[in-house]
Every structure is written in structure tokens, then in C-alpha cells.
What we know:
The protein is mostly helical. The chain has one domain. It has 19 helices and no strands.
Amino acid sequence: MNPIKKLFGQAAIYGLPSILGRTLNFLLVPLYTLVFENPSDYGDISILYAWVAFLVVFLSFGMETTFFRYLNLANDEDHSQKEKVFGNSFLTIIALNALFLLVVLFFNQEVADALLFHEHNEFIVLLVLIVCIDSISSLPLAKLRAEEKAKKFAFIQFTSIFVNIILNLIFLFAFFDKERPSEGVLFILFANLISSLVKPAMLYKDFLKIKFAFDFKLAFEMVKYSLPLVFAGFAGIVNETIDRILLERILFTSGKTLDEAKTEVGIYSAVYKLAMLVTIFLQAYRYAAEPFFFKQSKNEDRNKIYVKTMNYFIAGVCLVFLVVSLNIDIFKHFIQNESYWVGLGVVPILLLANVFLGVYYNQSIWYKLSGQTKFGAFISIGGAFLTILINVIFIPEYGFWACAWATLIVYAAQMIASYLLGQKYYPIKYNLRKFFLYLGLSILLFFIGSYINFDNSMINFIIKNLFILLFLGTVYSLEKTK
């Protein structure tokens, strides 16, 4: 079977739960913005889940990528070695999460005070339980991906997502009182906790089959490989989510009340969800791409496959950028409360930023295949410093606009840095002409379309979407012979 067709076929299966989950979470935005009439209450949710992103990187410890790497190095017929690789990965994650959980449970009030949730230490306890359960479940799920058990993987993810959505609807419609918004936050966390428990419950047979034979030498090698990935991932999350945390902290210390600071966070987080449609595509792709790229590393035509894949990927993310940015007047209605709409102007900036992020993720295979994961760490750490610097300097004056521009600048810088280093240490001759053509055309069509503003909304809709068809036609005409 054509390897690229196989990649996108697997991306469809592996990514479908992610696409559905993120899409349904996207559809929860109307619910959250409806029940949380004050954006500051939605800001609480956003800040809590910003911290979740950091904890997931730390507590998963880069072991998914490490597992794929060492599984790929094992002899295809040596099942005992493959089991040893999985067992070492899994035990490492369990030990790390158990230790972290105990520490936070013991000091939960101190942690709550540090995160400005002085009266709600229960939020912190629930949050840590959610993250630990998800981190421990990540390795058995990665094993399913490695074994290409896509249907089982998808079913487990679908079930967890379904439970989360249903519980959100039940809790917020049947039990939530708008006069007590903190209860709404608690309901959302409880829904997430129960849905997270679904994964280990459905994987219990896989847990029972695990052979707990710990190989200290192998474990040390795996930790050594994964450590730069942890730094890279941690720094990457700084780039993705630290802006919400900094936005609250900096505005609060700059003279605004805590409620005013959280209001800006709530507005920014709500409109950021509209840029999430690019990340939905990206997440689906990444689930299948990482194991696929490792397997193709043994293929003599691997570089040709990587180049073709990049061409299709860029066309895909640019298409999503155009669809959302040119139809923002439609997508904005997913945010039910008009008090959030003041932030819509940053959506195209965030969409384009996520296009650059997607290209960077696609390029990052060079340092994973070559074993030079330190460069991934260097790039992400550099991006993290730049993110913090831009936000600290400009948030006091520009608020969430500074966050959006910082995201765009940093992702573009990381993409360029990764490309230049990759050409030196693991050259892949990407088609730069197509990259600039697809990217440039999508940006040009966006700017032209954004200036179209007839009194008739239907005319606006038709003309702007004709631009999207023009982009699609251009891509098709260039790729159809291949």
C-alpha cells in the first residue's frame, strides 16, 4: 500500500477521536460562554487547564516518543525485548506520577494559594488526579498505536469523550446555579475526572498483561533519550499556554483587579477556541505521523515521502486557516455571549500561528530520527524565553493582543530555526516553492477577503468562499499529477 495513503488513513482513524473530542469541546464553548455570564469565571477554567498542559508534559515525561523510538530499534521478531521496552516505559511513568500525586495531595492548600485559587484547593486536587490518570493511561494507548490497533484505540477515546460531554451537559444544565459560578468549575472538573477513569477501566486487561521486569540499564537509556524531549515539550507548552497565566498575573500586578484580569483571560481563551480548528487537524495528523515517520526511516525513499507529506500538510493547514478566518462572522456565533466578541480580532493571528506550529511539528522528525533531541529542546527553550519576554513587555499595554502576536512570532521563529538546523544535521529537501506559494496565497486571499464588506451578508459569504475554492483549485492543479 502507498505509505502516504496509509499515513492519512491511519490519521483518519487515530485522529477521529481527537477530532471529535476537540470538535465537541469546541461545541462546548457556546455552553460555557452561556452559563458563565462573566468572562472571569470562564477565565478560571482556562487558567486551570493551562496548568494541566504543563503537568501533562512533565508527568508523561516524553515516554510515548521514547517508547516508539526503542520499539523501532528492537528486532521485529523479538517480542520479549518489545515487552521490556513497554514495561520500563510504563513503570517509569507510574513511579513519577505516584510521587507527584502524593506531594500535591499533602500540600494542596499551598499549591492553591500559589495559583491564586485561595478558596478552592479542591480544584487543585481534582486537577492533579485527572492529569495523573491521563498520563498513566497514555502508554497503554501508545502501545495500541504501535500495534496498529486503531479501532480499539479509537473506541476507548470515543467512549471517554462521550462520557465527558454527556456529564458536562447533565451537570451544567440540571444542577448548575449561575449564582454560584465556582460550582460550574467543579462540575466541569468532575466530568473530566470520571471520563479520564474510563480509559484505565477499558484497558484493564492490557494492564494485567504487563510484565513488570525492570531493566535499569534500559530505563536509564530511555530516560536519557526522553529528558531533552521533556524540556522541549515543557518549553513548547510555555509557548502554547503560558500566555493565559502571564495575562492574569501581569494584569493583576499592573493595577487591575483579579476579576478584571481573569475577564481578559476568559475573553482571550474563548476566541482562542476558534483557532483550535487548525490544531484539530494537527492533532489528528500527529497521532499517526510519529510512528509512521519512524517506520519510514528504514525506507530508501523516506525523504521523498517526507517531502510529499509536507506539501499536503501545508496545503491542509492553510485551507483551514482560510475557512475559519474568512468566515469569522459565522464562527463567532459559537460564542453565545457577545461580551466575548471583543477578542475576535486576534483569531486570524492565532490561526496563522498554528499553521507555523504545524510545519514545525512536521519538521521535528529530523531530530527524533537522528537521535539529536537536544536540538528540539534548544529550539523550544529559545521559543519559551521569547514568549515570556514579549508577553512581559507588551501585556501591560496591549493585553491579550500581545499574547496573540507573541504566539505568531515565536512559532514562526521556531519553524525557521528547525528548518535551518535540520538542513545541517539531517537534510530533507523540502519544496520551499510550494511552501511559500500555499502560505503566501492563503494570506493574500485572507487580506483581500477581509476588505470585502457588502451590506448583503450572503454576497459576502459567497465571494469569500469563492476565494477558498480558488485556493483549493490551485492546490489540486499542482498536486493532481502526483
